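lol ok so funny story. i was supposed to be doing the assay writeup but got distracted and ended up predicting the structure for this chain instead. priorities right. anyway since i did it might as well share w the group, maybe its usefull for someone
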Amino acid sequence: MKKVIVIKMGGVASDNLTKSFFEQVQHWQKEGKKVVIVHGGGHYISEMMQRLNVPVMIHDGLRVTTEETLKISQMVLIGQVQPMITTYFQQEGFSVVGLNASCGQLITGTFLDKSTLGAVGEVKEVDTELLEHLLEAKHIPIIAPLGLTETGEWLNINADHVACKVAEELQAEKLYLLTDVPGVKKENQWLKEITTNDVSKLKTAKIIKGGMLPKLESAVAAIKGGVKEVHITNKLQHAGTLIKSKEVYA
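and the output, tada:
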């Protein structure tokens, strides 16, 4: 689908939803672009787990998702974070639709490693027909990072991974992965552009690590899947680090 821009919102969602954020979305819409939002919610899930005295366990950057953790994730993502985001958009005059895996089985997934990670999944299929219908009707889909297996089991999925798969399936022209830093850093400098080949080099040199690692791996997969460019940034109106398939520097 042409002229699609996918935005993944992470961290504290309300911090992303600034006046300049909405002005940029509005500007894109005036240019005829169609916008899709994928939201995370790790901060809010951890906060709720602490309130309920449920231990937070992380393995290789992913939240180990027990049955109890999954219920909390569903409650927070669908009951707290998504309504908050849709309300902000509606107050700014946008037409939005909040979506989760149970909406026509929007996201079909499989378990990543059930014995180690519990109900953590990866995306296998996205119902693009539903998304395209909403986009043609000038709605902004706002998607929670949850999936369902073919047998109806719920999965907690990394929001970067969901955003990248949605962008890939829609053949988006741009994907923005919003985070709490202005891009990818090397030797105390924020990189303006890197290629998929550069990502491998930066990984080998251990320049990229922690939470940035799965973000860049998802970005590379999206570009290989047909997304034209991926931006890692902390503000929608700033390009941040642009990731492309073509080699930029050696």
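The longest strand covers residues 120-126. Residues 171 and 226 are 6 Å apart (CA to CA).
back to the writeup now i swear
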